[in-house]
Amino acid sequence: MQQPPVLELTNLRKTIKGKDIVKGINLTLYPSQIFGFLGPNGAGKTTTIRMIVGLIKPTEGSVKICGYSVAHEFVKALSNVGCIIESPDMYQYLTGMENLLQFAAMNKAISQQRIKDVIEMVGLQHRVNDKVSTYSLGMRQRLGIAQAIISKPKLLILDEPTNGLDPAGITEFRNLIRKLAYEEGMTVFVSSHILLEIQQMCDIVSIIKQGSVVKTANIQDLLQDNDKIEWQLSDPETAISLLREHWNIQASQLKKNTISANIGPHPLAKLNEFLITEGLALTYCSATGNTLEDLFLDLTVGDEIV
Amino acid sequence: MFSLIENEVIKMISKKRLLFVIAILVALISVFAYGQHHASERIKTQLSQRMGISATTDWHKIADQQLIELKNRLDSPYRDEKDKSALRVRIEQLQYNLDNDINPLEQSAAKFTTKFMEQSIFLFLPLLIIMLASDMVSGESSSGTIKLLLVRNVPRWKVLLSKFLTLIMLEIIVLFFAFVLSEIISGLFFGFGGWNAPVATGFKLVAGKLDTSSVLNVPQWRYTLMVYSLAFFVSFVVGSISFMISVLVRSTAASIGIIMSTLVAGNFISYFLSDWKITRYMFMVNLRLTDYLSGSFQPIEGMTLLFSILVLLGWASASIIISFVYFTKKDILV
User: Fold this and answer.
1) Any CB–CB contact under 8 A between B154 and chain A?
2) A202 in Cβ contact with A22 (< 8 Å)
3) Closest-CA residue of chain A to B327
4) From edge to edge, which strands make up the β-sheet containing A68-69?
5) In chain A, what residues touch B152 (CB-CB under 8 Å)?
6) Residue of chain A whose Cα is closest to the Cα of B8
7) A75, A89, A91: residue with CB nearest B155
8) Are residues A283 and A194 in the same domain?
9) What is the C-alpha to C-alpha distance for residues A29 and A23, in angstroms, rounded to an integer?
10) Domain that holds residue A33
11) Has residue A304 been placed in a domain?
12) Which of A265-274, B208-217, B241-250 has the highest mean pLDDT?
């Protein structure tokens, strides 16, 4: 990570009508990273994104994109950004092509060839000359992605990008994002509440709750931290107490004959051997892996939404 | 900048709002021209049937007749002072026409074109401009597309300026179409001439009386040019004010509603509250700029062409300043 950061948020704060919506976010992203921004509804995701692209002014703190401050060097900073904010709102009375031409006209660096390429990248070539008002949500989403990447930005910000895409579209989209990040070196900032999406797509994830980031980590580390194991065996109560006494593992009963636990650093083979020698009939054992969802719920559940 | 304006023009054409405005113009001008034609034909036949005179050649007689009638009305004890001074103005104008051999009954395309704008300047023309201006910013706010515009590498003031310049272009286009359409449509009824006929202008209202000391005759085309220049100024002012409201309000419907109700209210404020001095600083009562040229009666005394222009200019510049300051500073939350 010796390259200069693409995005730097320093103590970013926003207060709207006396309510703290975003309470001091710090974040640094480097080229080719895919970053997932996770949080329940109303956590301040969109407000943060709006501050990054300069749609709203931070109450405190600063945003730097490729070293340029959004507050003071807006044009230079925004030259490096492509984004979709909330919904892909387009000019309904124009065709997809005309929409793209509108945005191309605002940036001299965009060539006709680039427009063509982008349309093919998002798979809109058959419908690009139809009015946007006839598009489905999924197609509007594709067009939204097209306008976001048309200027070859260094930072691509996508707010709920897979809304309305069908499963094939989501896979396509995921591949496109990977290609953009790893081949073209874009930094991708994805906000979502679809946890699986983030888990499958992102390298780094931040979980935001009530305006503060509660955890930022590499996604592999997060998930490998504590593998979750499920055992199907004859006497769950005994198994739970044995595991607690001998291994200091907190297991819980899931179903009639199933218990599950985070085994932490202990090797699974040893544990299984132990359970069998203790006389328990072990019929099934599987490592479910800790999903991001568990982590997400762990970190955010039980708090009312602001 | 140029490509930004081009973008705005493409949007405006695709939205078909301009087309709609032009369609309204065609419809209204056709109705007016036909009505005017119908009325003048009827007057002519009535005149020839009743008095055996022709309106085109013997107009002096008719004007004399009208003059006597107006004077009789002036002598009626039941009229209040306001009505009387209005009558006095008309009498003196008619007298002036008689003295200078200007036929007030003669119809021509040139006259219609001018008259149409004189009648439109305080309500119809502003409404057309409002239809175009109210949507310029609020339309993008309500559809959410404003976000797409403001996250480009273009500063906000440039985005707004391109919209404002487009609006000025649209104002010119609307006036151009109003002129061309009324000339063509009325020309079919009245013939295309009349551009060199003399028109009296330079009337002044001093203490409720018409001061004709500085009245002079100008050719119709010059008078028309003056009327349309004033109409452009009015469009610019009304356009700027509705542009501001469109910046301040997120929904197009609300923005059209606010400016239209203000405008309509202004039209009766000038009648009901003419004694209240402060009303003269409202933009709505200052829109009848062409009345200063034609010498029609002004509802509020002490207002001059210069005064009205300054008041309107004040409103326009305040609107433009507020629009730009607010737009470059506001948080976009749509």
Assistant:
1) yes
2) no
3) A55
4) A19-29, A7-16, A60-65, A68-69
5) 78, 103, 106-107
6) A102
7) A75
8) no
9) 19
10) 7-223
11) no
12) B241-250
How many angstroms separate the Cα of B23 from the Cα of each of B28, B181, B207, B213?
A: 9, 10, 43, 43
Closest CA–CA distance from residue A154 to any residue of chain B (Å): 13
- The CA distance from B12 to the nearest CA of chain A, in Å, is 10
For residue B162, give the chain A residue with the closest CA. Answer: A106
> By CA distance, what is A77's nearest residue in B?
B153
Q: Could A105 and B4 be called an inter-chain contact, meaning their C-beta atoms sit closer than 8 Å?
A: yes
Asked whether the beta carbons of B259 and B134 are under 8 A apart, the reply is yes
Q: Which amino acid is at A104?
A: A
In chain A, which among 55-84 make CB contacts under 8 A with chain B?
Answer: 55-57, 74-76, 78-79, 81, 83
Spell out the long-range contacts of B43-51 with Cβ–Cβ below 8 A and sequence spacing 24 or more. B43/B105
Is the pLDDT at B101 greater than 80? The verdict is no
User: Tokens for B200?
Assistant: 């009296």
**Nearest CB partner across the interface for A93, out of B6, B15, B148:** B15
**Number of structural domains, chain A?**
2
- Cross-chain Cβ contact B151/A76 below 8 Å: no
Q: Pick the closest to residue B11 from A98, A112, A140, A96 (CA basis).
A: A98
Q: Is B153 on the interface with A (CB under 8 A)?
A: yes
**Pairwise CA distance, residues B71 & B69, whole Å:** 5
The DSSP code for B296 is P
CA distances from B100 to B198, B200, B218, B233 (A): 9, 9, 12, 31
Minimal Cβ distance to A89: which of B7, B11, B144: B144
Section B71-95 average pLDDT? 74
Residues A123 and A180 placed together within one structural domain of the fold: yes
Question: What's the rounded Cα separation, in Å, for the pair B79 and B70?
Answer: 12
Query: Are A203 and A262 found together in one domain?
Result: no
Facing residue for A53 by CB, picked from B6, B151, B333: B151
- How far from the centroid of its chain's Cα atoms is residue B205's Cα? 20
Task: Inspect the interface and report whether the beta carbons of B144 and A86 lie closer than 8 Å.
Answer: yes
The answer to whether the CB atoms of B11 and A91 lie below 8 A apart is yes
A57 plus A184 within the same structural domain: yes
In chain A, residues with a C-beta closer than 8 Å to the C-beta of B148 are 89-90, 103, 147
Q: Is the pLDDT of residue B210 over 90?
A: no
Pair A194, A162: CB distance under 8 Å = yes
A245 DSSP 8-state letter:
I
ipTM above 0.95, yes or no: no
Residues A278 and A213 in one domain: no
User: Contact, A260 vs A230, CB < 8 A?
Assistant: yes
Q: Is the sign of the CA dihedral A37, A38, A44, A46 positive or negative?
A: positive
Mutate to test the interface with B, among A89, A107, A140, A156 (most CBs of B within 10 A): A89
Residues A218 and A233 in one domain: no
pLDDT of B106 above 80 = no
Residue A2 lies in a domain: no
Domain containing A105 — which CATH number? 3.40.50.300
In chain A, % of residues over pLDDT 90: 20
Same domain, A53 and A188: yes
Q: Residue A90: inside a domain, yes or no? A: yes
